[in-house]
Design goal:
Rossmann fold; 2 domains; 12 helices; GTP binding (chains A, B); GTPase/Isobutyryl-CoA_mutase (chains A, B); GTP-binding (chains A, B); nucleotide-binding (chains A, B)
Chain lengths: 296, 296
């Protein structure tokens, strides 16, 4: 068996395992329970508002890491929220130059979380991918609302990608992003307003200085491959910082909470609920809280 | 006992009941189970991006409804998300001219939903308020992300408030809001770009015409009390349309789902999870999925 055949076999096995977990097919729980305890994979969340150039940046990151003989996996999260847009599909296509590269594994996932959060499935799939031993796993989400907060619960390092611009709405969004950023990237840094924007962001992130980590604000021009090696260096530096148990257990507790919730709610079906409620409403004297207590 | 004393007594009882439910104090489940089946209260969600003038509009709605001898309750949802801002506090203060009015009940609630959704508490509290027999209950939320979608699951009529302006981010947000709007309000309609904005919005909402309801696009200038009576008329008209059982059971099923989830997860404590995980990590060979299956 050539190395390439072995690689293909490896990726096929991985794809099959992910499908098993996604579909909750027979044996998926055993598969998860048998995942090894440790993984060398750096898990990096890439988030930011639409139009910040996240996909182009991920693309450039992949190219650069491949040149360094690293292996890379990507989970691209398509929000199935009302905010889902055609632009995202465009993003997927732009990344396609890597689809057939053996060192790269790309999986697109819908954000099927019933409550707007990242799906518990993304937690499970990222753990399956980690067990495959890639050097890096990037999880890319569009930061419109809650998802950038959730990604911070899955990724070891969260990179928030912004573009230089002004406006109240953006500022609002940025404050949410501020909370989750381990690294800021100002992309499209050749724009006129870039320097002032970076300066302001540095002031803001300086306020969040901790004993262990000062959030860096990096400039990139992803389309020209500028600043990407510095970003990789910053990611690696952050990964070394977080090897302490404390942050890891907080992340794990978040994941555990979401997974427990998913499992406890698995047998609750909205359509079935609706049918039963419709019938109860017709019978009259309906009270939602009595219904819930008597339910199941 | 004068009418005013009786009113004060009534409001005090209501406030006490809400606190009981908010704190899950002894007897709160019985209280909820004894709520009457029907309520005359129209429940209206008011949502939209920050800066659209939602609070001023609610203020003007209250004034107008009071002049019509109606009683009004308001739940003002402060998102405890990272998007929470001082501006919101300003909104609360602006509404304060009604705080001592006997026909008006105002309650501020934090959005404590662990997953970014509206808290199940808001469902319960709105049901308690409905049982008190107000003519209108307004639930005001800031539409940044998911909350405007969730409000549509609680309110019978969702009013989406926008201001005339352009920009990609706003367009993105608008598409999410488009899904939930029963009525569009273009506030600050004296701005230059208002007519074009209203025209575009009418084209978009025309596409969502259903057999029973054509989403109206109304113009208001809340600060000058313009267009508010037309808005009330549109709300009342929509309320008459939705008296069918179908939509009601869908709304009820959504609420039931959230409440069931809240109850099933009530005994899961993230801090406790973290402590146990930290210990397990130290013992070595930790697997998240084995941990979850063995948990509790």
């Amino acid at each position: 068996m050539t190395q390439q055949t072995a690689d293909i076999q490896h990726l096929k096995t991985l794809a099959r395992r992910i499908s098993l977990v996604e579909n909750e097919a027979v044996g998926y729980e055993q598969l998860l329970e048998q995942l090894p305890a440790g993984s060398p994979t750096r898990v990096i969340g890439i988030t930011g508002p639409p139009g910040a150039g996240k996909s182009t940046l991920v693309n450039t990151l992949i190219t650069t890491l491949l040149a360094q003989q690293k292996t890379v996996a990507i989970i691209a999260v398509d929000p199935s929220s009302p905010f889902n847009f055609g632009a995202l599909l465009g993003d997927r296509i732009r990344m396609s130059q890597h689809f057939n590269n053996m060192q790269v594994f790309i999986r697109s996932m819908a954000n099927r979380g019933a409550l707007g959060g990242l799906s518990p499935k993304i937690i499970e799939v990222s753990d399956v991918i980690k067990a495959a031993g890639f050097d890096y796993l990037f999880i890319e989400t569009v930061g419109v609302g809650q998802s950038e907060v959730d990604i911070a619960g899955i990724a070891d390092t969260t990179v928030v990608v912004l573009v230089p611009e002004a406006g109240d709405e953006i500022q609002t969004m940025k404050a949410g992003l501020m909370e989750v950023a381990d690294i800021f990237v100002v992309n499209k840094a050749d724009r006129d307003s870039a320097d002032m924007f970076v300066k302001n962001l540095r002031l803001l992130s300086a306020e969040r200085h901790t004993r262990d980590w000062q959030i860096p604000v990096l400039k990139t021009i992803a389309t020209r491959n500028e600043g990407v090696e510095e970003l990789i260096a910053a990611i690696d530096k952050h990964q070394q910082q977080i090897n302490g148990q404390d942050r890891r257990s907080i992340l794990m507790a978040d994941k555990a909470w979401q997974l427990i919730q998913h499992r406890r709610m698995r047998n609750v079906n909205k359509q079935q609920l609706q049918q039963q409620i419709q019938q109860a409403l017709q019978e009259g004297n309906f009270n939602l809280y009595r219904f819930i207590n008597n339910w199941q």
